[in-house]
Amino acid sequence: MGNCASFTPKWGLSDLHCKGMVPIDEDETHEGIKTIRIQKACEFTTSSVLCVCIITWNMNGKLVSSNRKFDLLVFGLQEVPKCDVAQVLQETMAETHILLCQKTMQSLQMFLFGAKSSEKYIRELKVDKHAVGGCGGIIGRKKGAVAMYINFSGIRMVFVSCHLAAHENKVEKRNSECQHISHSLFSKNDIQYTKSADITVWLGDLNYRLQGISSIPARKLIEENRQSKLRGKDQLLQEAEKGEVFNGYCEGTLLFKPTYKYNIGSSNYDTSYKIRVPSWTDRILFKVDHTSGLDAVLSSYEALDCIRSSDHKPVRAHLCLKVHGDSA
Question: What CA–CA distances, in Å, run from 238 to 38, 173, 182?
């Protein structure tokens, strides 16, 4: 659709089978995260697509504005500086988008923007938050998650923006935090929003690291543009394969360079005495309910290397959603 002004709630009848599409008949016994290819152009008809841009960024106390023209934009931010980020984002996108919803838990914040005509398509909107592990070692930088549930013209979506425990050796703690957050969000509501969603998206600084490789060999592979060799060392993919977290979720292929840790103000990896191993700490994962009749195409999954004000690079995904068959 590309613009809510052209949105029509009656969906097309065609059953589309695009490269990179999440299969609706996905096997529920599948363990691990399914890596999917990026489809550069969405093949859905213009009038029947909901385009969602999702951005996660650990800002490390810095601020940079962003703007893209999508129907819905979700910003999941961690370590947000002490300023009015919502106001800055609203001013940046004032010509095309309005703020539909926001949820804050100290420096962990999420914002949902929609095209100016989008409010009339919102049937329900709920928010929640859940803290884990105290303050994460820094006052005002609590770990945990903030979440939003939105029914947008019949498509029920849940977005969970999280910041999990740091350090390479905290794998089990991160797994536990994921599970605790999943079970706790919206649990006080009579309606189980997380269970009724057509699509659930997790974004954030999940903090899973590379394991079993030291910093110098990892950096050499990245310098040679062979970072794909590092995917087998990724803790998140390893833990998901064991069935510990994110069973049945999908993620775009990790073609971009690891997003952490950089020297602030540059695109050079950490040169401090710690010489941290570069890692894909910042991720966007999604899962489609196979009974929902929803098709999803991932049109992009990338890191924004041009932004250099934090020790993390932002990660952006573009999802195109369509309900197939006769659905309103």
Answer: 21, 15, 19
| pLDDT tens figures, 126-149 | 999 999 975 544 555 689 999 999
User: 197 is written with which tokens?
Assistant: 């969603």
Give the mean pLDDT of 27-54.
Answer: 74
Q: Give the Cα separation of 326 and 328 in Å (integer).
A: 7
Residue 200 and residue 204: Cα distance in Å, rounded? 14
How far is it, in rounded angstroms, from Cα 166 to Cα 110?
Answer: 20
9-40 exposure pattern, b = at least 16 Cβ within 10 A, e = fewer:
eebbeeeeebebbbebeeeeeeebbbebebbe
Q: From CA 184, how far away is CA 201, in angstroms rounded?
A: 16
**pLDDT tens for residues 186-202?**
988 766 777 789 999 99
Contact 33, 237 (CB under 8 A): yes
- Nearest partner of 315 among 59, 137, 138, judged by Cα: 59
> For residue 9, what pLDDT band results from cuts at 50, 70 and 90?
very low
pLDDT the model gives residue 22? 34
Q: What are phi and psi of 139, to 5 degrees?
A: -60, 130
Is residue 270 within 8 Å of residue 276, measured between CB atoms?
yes
Sheet holding 34-36, edge to edge: 34-36, 250-252, 282-288, 199-205, 155-163, 143-152, 122-132
